[in-house]
Amino acid sequence: MHKYLNPRNYLRYFLNRFIAVTSIALKPLEKYLMQKYEDEGIKRYPPIFIIGAPRTGSTIFYQTITNYWDVGYVNNFECSNYKNIILATIISDKIFNKRCHNNFQSHHGATKGLNSPSECGELWYRWFPRNKHFVDKDELNFFQRLEMRRVVNGLICVKKKPVFFKNMNCGQRIRALYQIFPEAIFLHCTRNPLYAAQSLLETRKRVYGNYNSWWSIMPREYDDLQSLDPCEQVVAQIYYIEKEIKDALEKYYSKRYVRLEYENFCENPLGVLQIIKAFFERLGVNVNPKKEYQLYFIANNITRTDLPVINDLRKYISEYFE
Questions:
Q1: Which string of b and e fits 71-96 if b means at least 16 CB within 10 Å?
Q2: Which helix (H) or strand (E) is 31 found in, with range?
Q3: Band of the pLDDT at 13, cuts 50, 70, 90?
Q4: pLDDT at residue 314 is higher than 60
Q5: Where are the domains of the chain?
Q6: Contact criterion met (CB below 8 Å) for 80 and 16
Q7: How do strand 185-190 and strand 48-52 relate by DSSP bridges?
């Protein structure tokens, strides 16, 4: 259907305009809600962050966990109202009322459907810079830290359950997050670097039409990686993203994170969920299924790129990772 004949496009346009106009008027109410809940939500349910390098299966894990368990998450409706997200969450919970989203499709981490889980970068850009993904401690000021904690606390208070936030850039902000959420929990998604690197190259080709243009998370070493050839660049991108995550988690959250392997999750998703559930319980967080059903995924680990490219990726992986 032509875009001008699709009624959904007009509905989306008027909805976005309505949100833009009302968000200003509702700002005082949002501010009241931020202050109303004090710190009671985070004290009961510490925020849980899903992080990792790009193309490591974090989205399918996020979709599975939020569909299978009775937990909170930011959905697309709430994200579209990110400026007044606590108020949007109150409305969203009335509309969807624990309904399963049943969505296991995504495009570069983005999902369709108002109740589907969102990475919601716009929420985090309220405080973190857009053009710089690595953020060290003390880079955010007192008021930014205070507002972030109040917003997240408000979301948790409204949902009254553990809340998962999947935002891959937050893996480069762990040092800053520790100053705001020292009680946070992290799920670190990993994947065989060969297939993650191949997927990064494929994504560059789909999005930009070439292998040379940078896509996704920029580690602290981003400027130093600009002169590398594309194969070494994506391998180095994954390596330095992973290095920062590992170093920061070990320094600040050594007993409050668990590592998840994409391949293991696809092979035995229910088994991996049980391991994570036991990990949560040791930290005093309980999660329960919404419903029991079978989970089945196939790891997308096959070499699809030209052999010379794969050989180059293998060479650089041996240099960086071994």
A1: bbbbbbbbbbbbbbbbbbbbebbeee
A2: helix 27-36
A3: low
A4: yes
A5: 3-321
A6: yes
A7: parallel
